[in-house]
Structures are given as structure tokens and as C-alpha cells.
């Protein structure tokens, strides 16, 4: 079933999903966290949605932020057992060096994909 269709119960009919002009405040996406010597491990993040102008401002502000601050500004939760907070994020970034870039790319890609699809 295509992702832009909604199943309509027992009839088997497909309905087109309706576009809502104001996007949901959050969205979920899996990020492949690079692991040295192995395959990336998928971690689901709950990201904060941004409008085009808010995204432009966020990208400009990243120059003055640490990777941990940027990640806290992009996301609000993850599906790890560890609590989503500054300390845990810093531990992730310290131990999995490519994680900051992986999270950032996924975040931007998802927002841009949403722009293209909508």
C-alpha cells in the first residue's frame, strides 16, 4: 500500500490522505547511528518540526551551538533506554563520533522531503 493512501476498513477502498496546512509539531524518523566496525544502528528520534523560516534561522544559529545543543534543538525524544537529556546526548556524541552528522542529515532530509512531498 502506498504511504499516501489510507485504508478504508472492510471495503478495501483506498482514500487519499488529506494534507493539513499546519504541520504536526513533531515527527518521528529513524537515524542510522554509525558504529565503528559495524553497521549503523537505527535509533528512532522524535524531531521538532520547523517551518521554512524557522529552519533557515536554526541553520544560521548552529554556528554558535555545540553538537549537543543542536541535537536538543532538533529533537525531543528517542527510543533508547537512556533518558533524552544533555548528559545522555553528550555521551552518545562522545562514543559514536558520526552520530551528530547522522542526526543532522536525517533531520534536514526529513524536513526537506516533507517540503517536496507537500
Automatic annotation (TrEMBL):
User: What is the top-level taxon of the source organism?
Assistant: Bacteria
Query: What name does UniProt use for this protein?
Result: Phage protein
Q: Which organism is it from?
A: Collimonas fungivorans (strain Ter331)
Amino acid at each position: 500500500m502506498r504511504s499516501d493512501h489510507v485504508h478504508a476498513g472492510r471495503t478495501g477502498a483506498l482514500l487519499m490522505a488529506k494534507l493539513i496546512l499546519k504541520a504536526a509539531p513533531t515527527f518521528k524518523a529513524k537515524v542510522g547511528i554509525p558504529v565503528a566496525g559495524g553497521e549503523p544502528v537505527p535509533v528512532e528520534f522524535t524531531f521538532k518540526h520547523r517551518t521554512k523560516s524557522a529552519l533557515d534561522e536554526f541553520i544560521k544559529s548552529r554556528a554558535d551551538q555545540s553538537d549537543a545543543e543542536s541535537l536538543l534543538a532538533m529533537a525531543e525524544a528517542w527510543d533508547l533506554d537512556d533518558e533524552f537529556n544533555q548528559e545522555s546526548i553528550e555521551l552518545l556524541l562522545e562514543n559514536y563520533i558520526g552520530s551528530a552528522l547522522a542526526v543532522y542529515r536525517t533531520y534536514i532530509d526529513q524536513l526537506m522531503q516533507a517540503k517536496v512531498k507537500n
